[in-house]
Batch of 4 targets.
Target 1
Amino acid sequence: MQLAREELLRAYKTMKTIREFEERLHVDFATGEIPGFVHLYAGEEASGVGVMMHLDDRDYIASTHRGHGHSIAKGCDVDGMMAEIYGRSDGLCAGKGGSMHIADLDKGMMGANGIVGGGPPLVCGAALANKNLGNGGVAVAFVGDGAFNQGTTAEGMNLAAVWKLPAIFVLENNGYAETTSSSWSIGGGNPVDRAKGFGLPGVSVDGFDFFAVHEAATEAVERARAGEGPSFIETRLSRYYGHFEGDAQTYRGKDEVKKIRESVDALTQFREKVTGAALLDSSDLDAIDNEVAEVIENSVSKAKAAPLPTEADLLTDVYVSY
């Protein structure tokens, strides 16, 4: 599937925005100004963007505790996200969700989730709603290799298959369930075989390659929109930072991340492919780099200047009034 120039520019801009957002949080979290825990998505950009280039506002996603990249790829406002992570009242969730519970239902982003494997059951519900409404919408569950071993994920895939739901399960296998290597923690060795055991067609792709992910997602989304049921995609990739900010990463090999950044980085690969094929000029991408840097800088400045929630806000948004 040949992407138009505008689509290539959008893909690069979204991946670059995620990268710069995360790199800035890595620096700013160390200052102590950001409350709570932060889990960064840097290194995994091609996975989220490659899938969500196919989605629109009728579609839903459920994320993980590593949810910033998914939020940006789904179209959530960067200023609102930064304010939320800083715990400010004009954040997407009024400063009450923070990094691990960031959400925007208006964009179909059902939320980052501190519960490992919490997303697949939610996605089954969203997919069932779209199926009953007949609006052609799909729902996508992003899970890590740790969540892939949770019963909720197995139950979600089984239910989606039985009910023939327009759902897609994306395993972002970054190699570590916190500190546990997925090379031996996933029984059977091949996640695609496990998905096939539930009747889901599946594929495993290079998660650093935007085009490989985009192609796999094309088939899965078309299948779901056509009423042909759920699919499974494994994206093999790596996170550039620890499981959480402050993780010493003593379980990783010497210079492991450095070598990955130098050899297979998603943004570098994208640049080389589109400029090598004369689809985009380096100047186009340089302009995006400058634009994104300004956007992120402004979002941080706005977040730091925004007000904190007040004591009067403490018990609001707790219960829904019918």
Target 2
Amino acid sequence: MDGGGRFPESLSGGDAGRSGPARLAGAVMARLSSRSLSVRRARSGPRLGARLSRGTGTVAVSMTFAAFALAGFVASGRYDTFVAEQGRPLDIAARLMGFGVERVTISGISRMYEREVLAAAGIDWRSSVPFLDVGDVREKLLRVPLIAQASVRKIYPNEIAITQVEREPAALWQKNGEISVIAADGTVIDAMRDDRYASLPLVVGEDANTKLPEYLALIAAAGPLADRIKAGTYVSGRRWTLKLDGVDVRLPETDPAAALARLVRFEREADLLEKDIIAVDLRMPDRLVVRLTEEAAAARAEAQKAKKKGAAS
């Protein structure tokens, strides 16, 4: 303390009572402390990992909303409608790059039409060469009963080649009012949809398809009458009735070929089938029975009445 009872330096620790060097040192320390604080504040912002985490979260949320939107688009049926009208997205992209199916070459086609093959294969303007599954196309073609074998290959940039082998149709088979196309072994290979099969032989009745070889043998045995046979009905699983120009020819169960030979002889000698008859029964080996038309039967009845009257008078 000085003589007045006062201390020479402040009690608060201020700089007022410090010497020049002490004040300089304090100022330097103050600046350093200030700089250090400034640097720490600059480094106290969010770290890179935290920023990436927030960015990933944003992307994840966006993808989630996109997934929900896509699910809703599919569930609503609009996606199916879009695919039906424009094709699959991958096919659309391939078409834009010049790989759309612009040409389909079909080899081995015989009875089928080109449009039927394309429809069965599922190939149209919406298809693309890169994303066409040739195995799937082949399976689709083999589901067509008329096609026995098929192969499919791609020819880049925009062509598909189909090679097929068709089953040979041998006859038509009518059952319960429906007509099918059958192969020689009786297998149904197609439906009768138009007149392209109209010239094939026709068999009618239960199991008539499995007896096709017998029917074809009868046609061969008919000789000059073969072209006049329009159909054959398999009756009771035992015998055949042939339709010749509107006349039913009933054949026996045993040796029908011999009965046909008799009919050929009667036709050659007496023009039997040109008479007013609707049926010829050859089931009895020692005789032939005919059934007249209604007009012929009526005329015959009148003739017999007149004959009897004449005999009575």
Target 3
Amino acid sequence: MKKFFVFIFLLSCHLSYAQAPVQRLVSSFDRLLGDEQAKYAVTSICVLDAKTGKQLFGKNENTGLATASTLKTITAVTAFSLLGKDFHYQTIVGYSGSIGSDGILKGDVIISGGGDPTLGSWRYESSKEGLILNQWVTAIKAAGIKKIEGRVIGDDHLWGAQSTPDGWTWQDMGNYFGAGPSALTWRENQFSIKLRAGNSVSVIKTVPVMPYLTIVNELKSGSAGSGDNAYAYVSPLGNIAYLRGSWATDIQKAGIAVALPDPAFEAAFRLQDTLEKAGISISATPTTSRQLSAAKLPVPEIQQKLSTVTSPSLSEIIYWMNKKSINLYAEHLLKTIAWKSGVAATTSNGANAEINYWAAKGIDKHAMNIIDGSGLSPATRVTTYAMASILFQAQHEDWFSDFYNSLPEHNGMRLKSGTINDVSAFAGYYTADNGSKYIIVININNYSGDKINPKLFRVLDALK
């Protein structure tokens, strides 16, 4: 009997301790709801027991909200599930036509894009721009090519002509974070514009030099301390970039990063420039498969392969996607999900494949109104309960450690953050000092003012 009472006492203590964080969470979330910044907002939270999946606390957890970049958690988990952590992309360079005994290629050099978002990226040793260009030039020289009577073609036809996902805003899509996916992506589809602050804002140069792009500078000088409010407006496949907004007179930044309007053309342009510097002349200007198709001209195919570039693994791609919240990578993964599902590689097909995959695993498809892969679209709506449920299921997969390690640390927790206009969200995992494990998704839409994140963290501190 004595042992029985000791057992009951210990059990009651355990239950009391387990309830305490949840009770604190209820109070801290209520304080957030009463905050002036949340007065006109929709605020949602879902906290699950990571070991059992039981919901410990939820509020508005079945209301669909704009996710911002927390959507990348769903994109990543789906990609791991459908593609595998060791999935790689491949880019092939080859030529059409024939090489004469004099070393003249009567045909075209073709870069055939295979959807690699890292081609030319500075984030990986194996993908850096200079290394890739040298590899291609070396392969072309090794084939005996000394002169090209033809073109360098960037072949991006694999994923069709639409690069920008539906639902993205005009203000976003000309800037580096709004760079759209392409079957032939190059240097993360961005370049830099160097600016000088003063009574007026001057454009110093672009890096690299972009001779085929016209820059129209409409920037205004901003007051000291106002920071970077400069935006580039560049239409996909266009050749004019408008700079609008303000640039503070005391700003320390060197410039802004801008989206490439035509990544396949940029890749072809850089290869042609490198070949010419290496002494291999080319008779025509670079072009792309899209430009040729638009002009109703035939698009040649590779007849002889010269070089294959293999991307880093999916695990490595997702690591940087989540650590640096790279929208481009997420959009590539969503198109890849469609492509590898055997349908046209469109954003909407990828989103449908993603939704159907999770619906088959018991998650209500109506809780996932997914428009893009990155969450940059404000039209994307997902409930915090659906996102938390996906994060719960991810724990049981053999790739989970790779996914978990990709999540940044915020407030002492492993959380993917998300921020777009008047939206702030966090999604991920937390292990308390006592060993309790939690899955957390918190999201606020349409809040007022700024610096809302410390208040969200104060809610989550209840679990500590």
Target 4
Amino acid sequence: MAIIGVDVSKLSLVAVRTSSTGIVKESFEIPNTAVEIGTWLDQLQGKHKYLLVASEATGDYHNTLAKACLSRGIKFRLLNPILTKQFNRATIRKRKTDLTDSEIIAKLAIQGEGSIVSATTFAPSKAIHRATIRLVKVKQALERMSTRFNEMFPEENAVNQQLSNCVELLGESCIKLRKEAKIKTDPKLRKLLTSIPGIGEHVVVTLINEINDIGRFPSPKSLVAYAGLDPRVKQSGTSLKHNTHITKRGSVYLRRDIFIAASIASRWEPEIKNYFEKKLGEGKRYREALVAVSRKLLNRVYAVWKRGTPYERRLTTTGA
């Protein structure tokens, strides 16, 4: 198999082809346009029967490459940029060029890092949902601005009214976009996952759109890692140490919403509340206990989604 590691920028792609053992065979530089990328991939497919292309997530700049690979049946693996930075820091020479980045990306892809991109990755519901989350943050910032301005200059009626109008308009847009994202998200899957205590109507849309396909995660631990809720590990010689900090890699949208769900469920949902209080009783701090609840919720999501049957409450609260 030929492994293609690609460092993507707005205008160009710098790539290397390696063997399955990570030995660099050749390098390329291609304009980041659909036509040039298509021609390059066609040439590669003509020479190599099996291809795996990998790049970092770089805003929208990698989308043209990913879509070109999908249309040709080429596996495309998308990596978190944090991984390449960590890999580079771990090397002795710590070189930083486009070619070395491409080589690092190829080596990480060989190790199975990153996620395989599918057609659902480019589903409109995901983009709409993420746009809604960003817009909600803008609305919250504008609300704070409006409140402060009104407190400082209550006599400025025209300005205060205009700010209030902006907040109201943004609020209406958020509601409409959230509704649109929900409509475009699989209703059967929504119903299935909301059978899990603690998973509500808003969170389930985030889960489906951020996870996309549960089949790309081989275990619940890999899903937890994708949400960035796995603990950091430090190793020195034979000493292996887990600390209380989480990695925060993967989907920030998934991590944020599952944490919010855990926070609400730990107060109002009996099963989750008991588990949360148990963790506090074990000496964990508030935030650590919430992270544990978040992991538990994701474990349940994984099991229910994989099994395809609704969550069933157990008589005891010690089960998953």
